Amino acid sequence: MKWTQLMNRGLATSLLSLLCVQADMAVAQTASPTARPALTISVIKPQWVSTPATIRANGNIAAWQEASIGSQVGGLRVAEVRVNVGDVVKRDQVLAMFATDTVLADLAVQRAQEAEAAAGLAEAQANAGRARSLKNSGALSAQQISQYFTAEQTAKARLEAVRAQMQVQNLRLQFAEVRAPDDGVISARQISVGAVVPVGTELFKMVRQRRLEWRADVVSEELSRIKVGMPVRVRPASLDKDATPLLGKVRVIGPTVDMQARTAVVYVDLPTIETDVPVVRAGMFATGEFELGDTRVLTLPQESVVMRDGFSYVFKVRDAARVSQVRVEIGRRLGARVEILKGVEDNESIAESGAGFLNNDDVIAIDPAPSPTTPEAK
């Protein structure tokens, strides 16, 4: 029994010694700078670059103001229409004319009634004048004198009423010519020759001053960065990919936010294009970028950023021998570089070439050749 205990004790001691030796060998291999590298890579440090900051948005192009031109007289026949959709017009230009035969006839009747009322007034004034001269003589009673005075006032009122009717007919004659209220371009036409339209009927629609605007839908989180007067580059759907976008300017920021979409409308004035066939029309869809100015951002080459499981990672070099896989948050792509929003600092060494073949805690060898620097983005 004693011999057996001695044997077991010796065996346990041997096993413990063996485990200690293996642990020492593992530590030595870990600490050894001669561990075999998995890959030879180049290393780069994040760089600050200057780049224009922008906010992208979508929206529709619409007329700055669309004037509705209606009929100010009723019951007249359209005699002539001088403009059509797409015509550029000037302020006070005649757009259409109504037939004025009935207006002229009514005006002639009113003139005759005016002459009759003027003659009646002259007679009433003469009678009233004689009554005033005989007022204190007793030749006329007080009732007769009052009647003459009343007749004079009635004749004056009748003449004024006839003249007011004449003024109405003159206005109808004036409104028989439909004129443009402002410079612009005709966007819709609702009448044709021969039609008899009631008063207030819409005849034309006009884009005032040929001015268009872009109504951009901007998310509420970005509204605080947009200011009135800020330049905006707008690319309508009709422009070619290589064409220069339109340079607009923020006129006003919408006072409310849509509760469903959480966006507000930002109104951007577009330049007037003086061409017969404009490339920009109301109703078009357009994309645009609000220019916030230049900002400095931290960037890495695209090959340093590895996508795995839907997330972005980089490999930080530690102790010049191993790498650590670190998750980062990326922003815009700036040519061959990627904006890094979170995850690395500008003084850290990051794996560049071969990053896609690395795993966390891999042993690496660093290529001594310096990596070429990338000029700042403009």
Features:
alpha+beta; Elongation Factor Tu (Ef-tu), domain 3; 6-stranded antiparallel β-barrel; 378 residues; 26% helix; 37% strand; 4-stranded antiparallel sheet; conserved putative lor/sdh protein from methanococcus maripaludis s2 fold
Number of helices, where a helix is a run of at least 4 consecutive DSSP H or I residues: 3
Gross morphology is rod-shaped
Class of the largest domain in CATH?
Answer: Mainly Beta
Question: Termini separation (Å)?
Answer: 88 Å
Query: Total domains, how many?
Result: 4
CATH superfamily annotation of the largest domain: Efflux pump adaptor protein, beta barrel domain
Strand order of the largest sheet: 3-12-15-14-13-16
CATH architecture of the largest domain: Beta Barrel
Largest sheet: 6 strands, antiparallel, barrel
H/E order of the elements?
HEEEEEEEHHEEEEEEEEEEEEEEE
Q: What's the overall average pLDDT, rounded?
A: 84
Q: Would you mind describing this structure in some detail?
A:
The chain is 26% helix and 37% strand. It folds into four domains: 34-51 and 296-366, conserved putative lor/sdh protein from methanococcus maripaludis s2 fold (Beta Barrel), CATH 2.40.420.20; 55-64 and 211-293, Beta Barrel (Elongation Factor Tu (Ef-tu), domain 3); 76-99 and 177-210, Beta Barrel (OB fold (Dihydrolipoamide Acetyltransferase, E2P)), CATH 2.40.50; 100-175, Helix hairpin bin (Helix Hairpins, Orthogonal Bundle), CATH 1.10.287. A hairpin with a 2-residue loop joins strand 17 and strand 18 (311-318). The chain is rod-shaped, with a radius of gyration of 45 Å. The protein has a six-stranded antiparallel beta barrel with strand order 3-12-15-14-13-16. With 378 residues, it is α+β, with helices and mostly antiparallel strands.
